[in-house]
Each structure stands twice: as C-alpha cells, then as structure tokens.
C-alpha cells in the first residue's frame, strides 16, 4: 500500500519543466525569461537560438523539455503551444572571500537560481467576426 498520488497541479492543457540550481543570478536569468513570456513556442525557440546571453542555451533546453513533456506525457499539439509562464526563483548563494589591501577581505556572493517554464495549448481562432 503506497500513499495516494497527488492531484495534478496544472490544467489539462498545460505542461511544465523545471531547471534547478542554475549558476546565474536570478536577475540575469529573468531578462532571458522575459524574452519568451507569452510567445508561441516556435518564436520563443528562435529568439533563444539567436540570443547573445550565455544562459539562453539552458533556457532553450528547458523550453524544449517542457514541449516534450506536453507532447509525450499530456498528448498536446506542439503547433498550438504558447509559453504561458516563465518564472525565476532564487536558489542557494555560495559565499566566498576575496583578499583585499591592508589585510581586509570582502565577501563575494555567487548566486544560483531556479527556472520554471509552463507551456499551454491554445486553440487557434478560425476567424474574427463582428
């Protein structure tokens, strides 16, 4: 006898991927996450492909993972997927010491962050009528 499974936190037309302990500050990662928020996944992948930010490669991998989860685990159509949410959370912070002049020392903080990407299947509108 195992414990009962938790109910699914997302809706039926959503899938997500989480990347934890990413060695970049949350502020820098949020700049790249803001680049893809609300866009179709094909456009978001293209934007990340040509972004000059170092971290965009890891964000792209996470987005591809969310797309694969939507396709394989939840039977969603890849062509109708939109990046519904892309949010960044703080992770741990490594504290380091840097020796300075006159016997002083300064603290160097090396932050980590977490990235969560949620993709949602949105049905295409066939026409706009008035």
What does this structure look like?
Belongs to the universal ribosomal protein uL22 family. It comes from Chelatococcus asaccharovorans. This is Large ribosomal subunit protein uL22. InterPro entries: Ribosomal_uL22, Ribosomal_uL22_bac/chlpt-type, Ribosomal_uL22_bac/org-type, Ribosomal_uL22_CS, Ribosomal_uL22_sf. The protein is α+β, with helices and mostly antiparallel strands and 130 residues long. The protein has a single domain, classed as Ribosomal Protein L22, Chain A (Alpha-Beta Complex). Helices cover 28% and strands 35% of the residues. A three-stranded antiparallel β-sheet has the order 1-3-2, covered by helices on one side. β2 and β3 form a beta hairpin. α2 runs antiparallel to α3.
Q: What are its keywords?
A:
130 residues, alpha+beta, Ribosomal Protein L22, Chain A, 28% helix
Q: What do we call the CATH topology? A: Ribosomal Protein L22, Chain A
| DSSP summary, beta strand count | 3
Uncertain regions spanning at least 5 consecutive residues:
none
CATH superfamily grouping? Ribosomal protein L22/L17
Largest sheet, order of strands side by side?
1-3-2
Q: Tell me which oligomeric state these chains represent.
A: single chain
Q: Give the topology string: H per helix, E per strand.
A: EHHHEE
In DSSP terms (H or I, runs of 4 or more residues), the helix count works out at 3
**Proportion of beta-strand residues:** 25-35%
| Arithmetic mean of pLDDT | 93
GO cellular component, one term: cytosolic large ribosomal subunit
Family: Belongs to the universal ribosomal protein uL22 family.
Subunit structure: Part of the 50S ribosomal subunit.
Pfam families: Ribosomal_L22
């Amino acid at each position: 006898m195992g414990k009962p499974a938790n109910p699914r936190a997302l809706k039926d037309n959503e899938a997500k991927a989480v990347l934890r302990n990413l060695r970049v500050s949350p502020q820098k990662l949020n700049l790249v996450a803001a680049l893809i928020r609300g866009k179709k996944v094909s456009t978001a992948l293209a934007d990340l492909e040509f972004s000059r930010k170092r971290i965009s490669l890891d964000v792209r991998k996470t987005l591809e993972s969310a797309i694969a989860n939507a396709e394989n685990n939840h039977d969603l159509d890849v062509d109708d997927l939109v990046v519904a949410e892309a949010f960044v959370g703080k992770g741990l912070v490594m504290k380091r010491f840097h020796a300075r002049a006159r016997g002083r020392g300064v603290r160097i903080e090396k932050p980590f962050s977490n990235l969560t990407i949620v993709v949602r299947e949105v049905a295409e509108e066939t026409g706009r009528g008035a």
